[in-house]
Specification:
Layout: H1 17-30, H2 43-50, H3 54-66, E1 70-71, E2 79-80, H4 94-99, H5 124-136, H6 152-165, E3 175-178, H7 181-195, E4 200-205, H8 209-217, E5 221-228, E6 231-232, E7 244-247, H9 261-274, E8 277-281, E9 306-311, E10 323-326, H10 332-342, H11 348-359, H12 362-389, E11 393-396, E12 403-408, H13 415-423, E13 430-431, E14 443-447, H14 453-467
Parallel strand pairs: 4-5, 4-7, 7-8, 8-9
Antiparallel strand pairs: 1-2, 3-10, 5-6, 9-10, 11-12, 12-14, 13-14
Amino acid sequence: MTSAPTWLELDRGAGDLAGQIYRSLRDRILLGQLPAGQKLPSTRAFAASLGVARSTAVEAYDRLKSEGYLEAAAGAATRIAALARMQVERRVDDRSLIEEMRPDKPPYHALFRPAVPDVSNFPHAVWSRCLAARSRSFRIQHLGYENATGIFELRQAILEHISTTRGVVAVPEQILIVPSTRAAIDMLARTMLRRSASTVAWMEDPGYPTARALLGDAGAEIVPVPCDEQGIDVSRAQGPQPVLVYVTPSHQYPTGVTLSLPRRLALLETARRYGSLIVEDDYDSDFQYGSRQIAALQGIDRADVVAYVGTFSKILAPGLRVAYAVVPRWLVAEASEALQRKGVAVSSHIQAALADFINEGRLRAYVRRMNLQYADRMARTIEMLNSHFSDHLAVSGGDGGLQLAAWFRDGATDDRAIVTRMNSSGYGLMPMSDFFIGKSASGVLFGISQAEPAAVQKLATDLKTVLG
């Protein structure tokens, strides 16, 4: 090598040119792309060919020498040191990775992707003002480790919101702030499994695949409990008593049904009798169309067996990374310790800005506005499916939430194949069969948050083509 290699390109706008040179050479050496013993040009020649100061090249070379990647003797050329080659394992090549992407993992921005809000309506100006104001007047007590489970202002603001809108009964100290519902589910599952001899967890069937994976990763033995038009039916549960029961009672995911009052009472009594924790994932209940919201399960819990989980990812935007868990009093200390141990925390200035956003009435106003828009988009999607595809699909739900389930009348239909073909045209649909643990049924789950007239018309045209 007599000059800088052609593959070494510097991003001069990013700065730290010596660091860029160091990292580029180091990575090539570790991968064996620069063989042991190969000469490097002098620092003067190397710097000249890159158009940088000689001191920059010297700094990069000296760092590589000090870490053992290069070797040089007085009066001799600098050479690549003899090192063991770092092996890079790849399960699939890039082409296979693209070909094998599952249809239930569509791009976030894909049309009709379930369970995501329309972020184009995010209140940027108001949020920016809240964030800027908190950044200018940040309190010193928010800058330490004391708020690992959430700042008090946000806990209190959330409690005031969900006690009014969802009937949740708690005190601010029961609320733990987390980056996502996934973090909350994982924390609750691991905490309960750690304190119990049982490893059994019940969950709805069909149900949320990510929750299933999180429970499994935590070490739970998952027992599917059938759901029907009234929601989860614990009388049909088979197997050992559970340490935890995961449910989505307001809008069952993915069917959209609401858990009936008799089933709610039966679930609460079962948890009380077994000493189980119910994890109530209330992921998008702020959006209800055509009827009054049913209060949260937690609000009618008299045995202190429900942990209520909510998120701002569905209401506002996933990028905020703010969710929360309202845990029973007897679990607060253990759950808080689990969060602190894992270092799962939300930036304090984001929390403070969100507290202001809620306290100023901005959240409630935004939910009211979006509820009207989503109701219109849900109705538009239902009307299109019923008008054009009633021979193929039976629509289920639609009273609330950000997704709509439709079942194939012909149970033998390959919903995965249908969804794969649709998603190749830029959609984000999901096959209903992928939500089942036991015997599955065939259908499609549609997201409605971006169901504008033109998008719905395009969906109808493309679906007609696919269904023939």
